[in-house]
Amino acid sequence: MTMLASRLALAALFAICLGWGASAREITHAMGTTDVPDNAQRVAILTNEGTEAILHLGVIPVGAAQSWDADPFHQHLLPALADTVSLGTETAINLEVLAALAPDLIIGTKARQEKIYEQLSAIAPTVMSETIGGTWLENYQFYGDVLGLGEQAKANVEALEERAAALREAIGDGVNDEISLVRFAPSRTRLYMHGSFPGVVLDLVGFKRPAAQDMPDTFVEIQKERVGEMDGDRIFYFSDDKNPAENLAWMDDWMADPLWQGLEAVKAGKAQRVSELKWNLGGGIFCAHMMIDDLADIYGVPRP
Predict the structure, then answer these.
(1) Is 109 within 8 Å of 50 (Cβ atoms)?
(2) Which of the residues 240, 242, 258, 273 has the least number of beta carbons within 10 Å of its own beta carbon?
(3) What's the distance, CA 202 to chain centroid?
(4) CA–CA gap between residue 105 and residue 211 (Å, rounded)
(5) Is-contact 213 181, C-beta < 8 A?
(6) Residue 181 vs residues 70, 168, 259, 266, 279: alpha-carbon distances, Å
(7) Which residue intervals of the chain bear CATH 3.40.50.1980?
(8) Is the peptide bond preceding residue 72 cis, with omega within 30 degrees of 0?
(9) Check whether domain 3-148 has CATH 3.40.50.1980, yes or no
(10) What is the CATH number of domain 171-299?
């Protein structure tokens, strides 16, 4: 028996022992149906947005996927995750480390972990969202339902929507601005649309989007001949917050281009860099609230 197989067997045995006498509920999810414990005590979460979600719901995981731009976790999550074990990235979950933690519930996503679903299920009851990104708000409710915290999740979503509505009212006619979202990374530049994390937050507030970005997709990668599609009343762009040299060089190259210089938002001084963590990588409810704060500051109104 391999080391991994041994750990899986031990984890399964431990989970059975923990579950003696415990009640469970059947949860329908992207990979089928699974009986999950009513009061899971050792939750493992395999996505960045999921980590934000369950922490926001007051559940501290025993193991979590590593944050995309941090080792192991984003700065704003570190205090709550002081005792949480990093499980590797969303696309490379370390099954041996996960098994050794003996979780009693695993939450992942089909979009990232479909191929290891059977191995995960051998460790503990496993449920999965269909995908991540633009569905983060629906997924938040799903995580709440899985954890038996559905009513709390519903109330928290409503609270976020109320903050977005309050910002919309405070900004007034400013919500008619067409907001362009651009990401610069080495060798690729993307426009972000309604189906992205920041796109959903902008939609909650009620902002308009430029015609080229007014579609349900997550993002589209563009070359310089399509710089015109970046234009809007305001451009918010983001790149790695740590400013590696290759990112800065790529961004500088695009911004030195006459096509960028000719954009109306650029000429009006309304092209602004924002935090990649808050506006893209975090991808969860804490960062959604941070985005709302940023937008209030940018538009010069009180934070709701």
Answers:
(1) yes
(2) 258
(3) 15
(4) 43
(5) yes
(6) 23, 19, 17, 13, 9
(7) 3-148, 171-299
(8) yes
(9) yes
(10) 3.40.50.1980
Query: How far apart are alpha carbons 144 and 91 in whole angstroms?
Result: 23
**Would you mind telling me the total number of residues written for the chain in this entry?**
304
* Three-class DSSP labels, 6-37: HHHHHHHHHHHHHHCCCCEEEEEECCEEEEEE
* Whole-angstrom distance, CA of residue 178 vs CA of residue 45: 36
Q: Which residues of 102-141 are buried (b: 16+ CB within 10 A; e: fewer)?
A: bbbbbbbbbbbbeebbebbbbbbbbbbbebbbbbbbebbb
Residue 7, token pair as written in the block: 């750990």
**Beta strands across the sheet bearing 179-185:** 219-222, 188-192, 179-185, 234-238, 271-273
Q: Which two tokens stand for residue 24?
A: 């469970």
Mean pLDDT across 30-58? 97
The single residue listed with the structure tokens 């917050």 is: 241
pLDDT digits (tens, 9 = 90+) for 249-302: 999 999 999 999 999 999 999 999 999 999 999 999 999 999 999 999 999 999
